[in-house]
Design a protein that fits this description.
pyridoxal phosphate; Aspartate Aminotransferase, domain 2; alpha/beta; single chain; seven-stranded mixed β-sheet; about 35% helix; Aspartate Aminotransferase, domain 1
């Protein structure tokens, strides 16, 4: 079976060497030495000032909202993983959905300003599939209306924009280190800021708001363990090579999928934002209709190949969200977008087979 993603695992001996140190120290969690080492290495790798390694990519979104005192309306994207909206709802905020750009599927800065009210406090945007939003445009709107900017940058580790890590932008940026990501710690995430005061808040938020017997603020349990940090320390040095391998798989797809418009065969990919050095986190394709997508999915699954409708559905249509706020572009794209299998050691012959199945399924629908 070929799944949409496959986790990278380092050499087992390399990982167990870290485990031996954990056994010797009997220090398993709570801001341990491996965690601190990983944080330091990640800060250097990304070129950021403050970074806190936490338990996952969702809790860091919640911490971001809390640290910035966001309690009211947040303008956000409908085209993201559900965690983006869940974090807002969980923290008692009101998500206000602005539609996406039709080319890169990121939050459309031009759609933000008409939605701003006296209750708007922040913008929460997602760098979709690891591709940067129009950062300057979003920042200009935020500065005009004195809004905070939080980036859900779950997909962007190793990607840069104008020579800087995409994670370095915004008041706060968050990332996921789930097992399927470009860089992973099995489970995990991080929260990043340049602001010293916010960083201090986040430090205490992560650990119940206290240090030893001194209590400084409210807090939550967002600590991660030495075991997860050990995995991160093994994987981090491999990230450049993993991205290079992903780039090669990406190119295999590019040369084998039929992007021509002949005979009604319509497959396209989202465009990259100018200035982005991509990390090849995903390989999304968009079909002419949901009917074509479903035909492709069935054809792939018949050959034990599992793609993913990522992102689906459009978050503004969730039954537990705050009413339906129309976002026609997102609603349309969410019905037609599919992520094909993408991981560093996906063989060229397998990509060729996947592409052939996709091309044939699209051609069958077009002929019908």
């Amino acid at each position: 079976m070929i799944n949409v993603t496959k986790s990278y695992l380092p050499d087992l001996e390399e990982y167990t060497n870290y485990l031996k140190g954990i056994w010797e120290r009997v220090y398993l969690t709570n801001d341990g030495p491996l965690l601190r080492d990983l944080e330091a290495q990640m800060k250097e790798f990304l070129g950021v000032k403050h970074l806190k390694f936490c338990t996952n990519g969702t809790i860091v979104l919640q911490m971001a909202l809390k640290a910035l005192d966001i309690t009211k309306e947040v303008i956000t994207t409908p085209f993201s993983y559900v965690a983006t909206t869940n974090a807002l709802l969980w923290e008692g905020c009101t998500p206000v959905f602005a539609d996406i750009r039709p080319d890169d599927f990121c939050l459309d800065a031009a759609k933000i300003e008409p939605l701003i009210t006296e209750n708007t406090q922040a913008i929460m945007a997602t760098h979709v599939y690891g591709n940067a939003c129009r950062i300057e445009e979003i920042q200009a709107v935020a500065e005009k209306y004195n809004l905070k900017v939080i980036y859900d940058a779950a997909h962007t580790f190793g990607a840069s924009y104008n020579g800087r890590s995409i994670l370095s932008y915004g008041d706060i940026s968050t990332c996921s280190f789930h097992a399927t990501k470009v860089f992973h710690t099995v489970e995990g995430g991080c929260i990043i800021t340049d602001d010293d005061e916010i960083a201090q808040k986040l430090h205490f938020y992560r650990s119940f708001g206290h240090r030893n017997d001194d209590y400084y603020s409210i807090g939550i349990n967002a600590k991660n363990s030495e075991f997860h940090a050990a995995m991160g320390l093994c994987v981090l040095p491999k990230v450049p090579n993993l991205i290079a391998a992903r780039k090669q798989v990406f190119s295999y797809y590019d040369t084998r999928l039929d992007f021509s418009q002949a005979d009604g065969r319509k497959i396209r990919r989202p465009t990259l934002t100018p200035g982005v050095d991509y990390n090849y986190a995903y390989y999304p394709v968009v079909f002419e209709s949901e009917e074509v997508l479903l035909r492709v999915v069935d054809a792939l699954k018949a050959q034990d190949i599992v793609p993913r409708r990522y992102f689906y559905p459009s978050l503004n249509t969730l039954p537990f969200s705050v009413g339906h706020q129309p976002c026609p572009i997102s609603e349309d794209v969410a019905l037609r977008v599919l992520c094909l299998p993408m991981y560093p050691d996906l063989e060229e012959v397998d990509v060729e087979r996947i592409a052939m199945i996709v091309n044939e399924a699209v051609a069958v629908v077009s002929i019908e």
